[in-house]
Each structure stands twice: as structure tokens, then as C-alpha cells.
Write a structure and sequence with these properties.
The complex is a heterodimer. By secondary structure, chain A is an alpha+beta fold. Chain A is built from two helices and ten strands. In chain A, β1 and β2 form a beta hairpin. Chain B is built from four helices and nine strands; from the N terminus they run ααββββββαββαβ. In chain B, a hairpin with a 4-residue loop joins β4 and β5. Chain B is elongated. Chains A and B meet through α1, α2, β5 and β9 of A and α1, α2, β5 and β8 of B.
């Protein structure tokens, strides 16, 4: 292979392989150090100055403003407890206890990060407005159609993401401190 | 005749063998000559990958600084549109969070951040660099009476102030002046430019406007260095 022919080929191959590696590394969440709790995943290091370059790049591409470590903890679910992708054609029962925090919110999003349009114009629930049982536990019905009690409308598009934000959570941003943290379960019920 | 008949195929077979060997040798030769180019392409791919990962946080169009903070004037707080399915702003917004941004550039002077939480709506502040790195975050329960008084300086400015104060220099800032106050938190920013995120939380979607009013007293100003 002469140098004149090989140089452009090697350059194109380097650009294509490098770009493909970058795209592949940005899939599946921001960087390393994910902490998994049931169906929920958190990336504690994104709220501090020791964030890794892959997490920084991933957040930039998403266009998200993550919480600082003293602001709170973000937990993201893309699947139910059984590992099946969340799908708005199904109903979900989100129950149990939330992380100990001053205040928390739960919202549903499209996979591209937009809040989901719905007829109720309701885009989430908060710890301040939730109906609970005597133990402080709760049941949230996430469904397209209206439900009595704690209803989280899912809108029409099928795939969705749930985000639970625990503001001023009583934990540090160190991954180990997440052990024992209470998170609600996500159980799928009926599908249409 | 018999010799001629039996010799011709042998010659042809020998020629084919040597031609095939030569072709194989040419292939091996080509492969050996391609190895440096393949290795070069692999090293190049690694370099492209690392450079893009490092460059994306500042160059990607939807990166928070580039998309939200860079267009803002220095020293002015701007409240992002209320989150909704069709609103702009950051991706994955919390519908219960009122977000305001303020851009700072320490080459123009230090940045002074003042805010007072109302005690009802959880309030927090975070300082971010242009690549999105959060170098400080705090909430209203971390501060005396929910009051934030933060001055962002460069490390060089912080060192100069420390030297000045340690040497008992009369020109050092005194409480009440722009340099320091009793409840001031001085932060040394790793870079000259960045932005501040103010976050106030509404307990329900109907409470959003009340939470927004908690930002009315927030200030973000560039303070010129004293002569």
C-alpha cells in the first residue's frame, strides 16, 4: 500500500472508529460509578467536582442540569423491577418508601428528556402532596388513564423514563452511603 | 514424444506453484507494510475518541453552559421558562423546580451571589464551570438563616487576599466592604468562566409562582477589583 493511498484511508478509519467509540461510550447513562437500587440507578459523582469526563460528556449531550451533591440525589428508572423497559401501554404500581430527604419529586419523561403531555396537565408528584398510609408508605399508580389516589399520568408515547429526585437527601454523595437507602418498587400491572 | 507429453504438465504445474508462492509472498509483504497504517489508525481512533469526550462538554450545542448560560449578560439573573412538554430549557427538568441562571466571568472581577431563602420553599445554589463541572453546591439549611452570601474569585485572587490579610495590609478588605463580610463564603473557582444555578422548589405545580417569587431578592453581580 503506498503512503499516498494509505494516509486518507487510515485517517478516515481513525475518525470513524473514534467517533463510533465516543457514541458507544455515551449510551447507558453518565459515566462510571453507577449505583443500582432495585429498578433505580444513580450516578453520585455527577454532582461533584470529581465527575469523570465520560459523565460530563454524556450530560452535555443530554442537555441536563444535574443536582449538586448538597442539592440532592437523582434516581432514574428505565425499567420495572423485573427489568422490562417502562412502557406507557402498561400500568405501574410504584410503592414503598422514598429516600429520606427534605422533599422529593417523581416525574415521567420521554426518552429524549421532555415532560410527557397528558390531558390532566400533571407532570409529577411530590412528597408534600402524596396520600400515605399510617406507616408513611405510599402507592402511586402510573397509568395513561386517571386513577383515584396518587396518580402519575403517563401520556401517550410508549417508552418513558421515571426520575425520582430526593432534595437535601440524608446521605452523602459517596456510593457506599446509598446502601440501605429506601427506594420505591416499580411493579407492572395490566397492559393494553 | 512420451517425454514431451509427460513434461508439459509438470512445467505448467511448477510455474503455477511458483506463481502462487509469489502471490502469497506479495500478500504477506502487503500485510506487513499495512501494519503501521493499521496501528496508526487505531492510535488515531483513540485520540479522536479522547478528544471528542473532552471537547463535547463545552462544544456540544445542547450543553447547559452553551445553550442556557452563554447567551445571558454578565451579572444578571435569568429565570428559565416554566418546565412543560413544549418548553425549552434543560432536558429532564423537574416540573416543581424554578431554575434561574447567572453567568460569571472572573476576568472582569469577582462575582457576588446574594440570595435569601423564604424558609418555605427548599432553596439551593450550585456553581458550575463551562464544561458543566459543579465545584460547589449548597442548600438553605447549610447557611445561617437561609441566607447566601457567596463571592467567587480566582485562586490567584484568593491567594493574594490571604497574603494581604496575613501581612496585616491595611488595604485588605474589611467587613462591610466588597472584599469580605462576616457571613461571606469565598469560593475559588478553578476556571475564569462559569455559571450559577439557583433552584427553588414548589410543593405542587400550583405553588410554582410562589416559589418563583422566592428568587426576587437574589442578586448576582460582578465586583470590580479594588484599585
Amino acid at each position: 500500500m503506498s503512503g499516498l493511498k494509505a494516509l486518507p484511508l487510515a485517517t478516515i478509519a481513525a475518525l470513524a472508529l473514534g467517533s463510533a467509540a465516543t457514541l458507544a461510550s455515551l449510551q447507558g447513562g453518565p459515566g462510571f460509578g453507577a449505583v443500582r437500587l432495585g429498578a433505580w440507578t444513580s450516578w453520585p459523582q455527577v454532582g461533584d467536582s470529581d465527575i469523570d469526563p465520560y459523565a460530563r460528556a454524556s450530560l452535555a449531550v443530554d442537555g441536563a442540569l444535574p443536582l449538586g451533591s448538597r442539592e440532592g440525589v437523582v434516581l432514574i428508572a428505565t425499567t420495572d423491577d423485573e427489568g422490562a423497559p417502562l412502557d406507557a401501554r402498561c400500568d405501574y404500581r410504584i410503592s414503598g418508601a422514598a429516600p429520606a430527604a427534605r422533599f422529593w419529586t417523581l416525574s415521567a419523561y420521554d426518552v429524549d428528556g421532555r415532560l410527557r403531555p397528558n390531558l390532566a396537565h400533571r407532570h409529577g408528584l411530590t412528597s408534600a402532596t402524596l396520600l400515605r398510609d399510617s406507616d408513611g408508605d405510599f402507592v402511586i399508580e402510573a397509568a395513561r388513564g386517571a386513577r383515584p389516589g396518587n396518580w402519575l399520568p403517563l401520556g401517550e408515547k410508549s417508552r418513558f423514563v421515571l426520575i425520582l429526585r430526593a432534595y437535601q437527601a440524608k446521605t452523602s454523595a459517596i456510593g457506599d452511603a446509598y446502601q440501605g437507602m429506601s427506594v420505591p418498587s416499580i411493579a407492572r400491572s395490566e397492559c393494553s | 514424444m512420451t517425454e514431451a507429453l509427460s513434461g508439459a504438465p509438470r512445467v505448467a504445474w511448477t510455474r503455477r506453484l511458483s506463481w502462487s508462492r509469489a502471490r502469497r509472498e506479495r500478500q504477506i509483504d502487503r500485510t506487513i507494510r499495512a501494519i503501521p497504517w493499521v496501528l496508526g489508525a487505531l492510535f488515531g481512533a483513540v485520540a479522536v475518541h479522547l478528544l471528542t469526550i473532552l471537547a463535547l462538554p463545552t462544544l456540544w450545542p445542547s450543553a447547559p453552559y452553551r445553550a442556557l448560560a452563554a447567551p445571558l449578560p454578565l451579572g444578571r439573573i435569568s429565570i428559565l421558562p416554566r418546565p412543560g412538554p413544549d418548553s425549552g430549557g434543560a432536558a429532564f427538568p423537574d416540573p416543581f423546580a424554578v431554575i434561574a441562571l447567572c453567568r460569571f466571568d472572573l476576568s472582569k472581577g469577582s462575582a457576588r451571589i446574594l440570595a435569601q431563602a423564604d424558609g418555605v420553599h427548599p432553596f439551593s445554589i450550585s456553581m458550575r464551570l463551562t464544561d458543566g463541572t459543579i465545584f460547589y453546591s449548597g442548600n438553605d439549611r447549610d447557611t445561617p438563616s437561609g441566607r447566601f452570601n457567596i463571592r467567587i474569585v480566582t485562586q490567584k485572587q484568593a491567594d493574594a487576599e490571604d497574603v494581604s490579610q496575613n501581612s496585616g495590609d491595611e488595604a485588605a478588605p474589611t467587613p462591610g466592604q466588597s472584599g469580605a463580610t462576616d457571613d461571606e463564603l469565598r469560593l475559588a473557582s478553578p476556571n475564569l468562566r462559569g455559571f450559577v444555578v439557583f433552584r427553588v422548589l414548589a410543593s405542587r405545580e400550583e405553588d410554582y409562582d410562589a416559589a418563583r417569587s422566592a428568587l426576587a431578592t437574589a442578586r448576582c453581580a460582578t465586583e470590580k477589583p479594588s484599585p
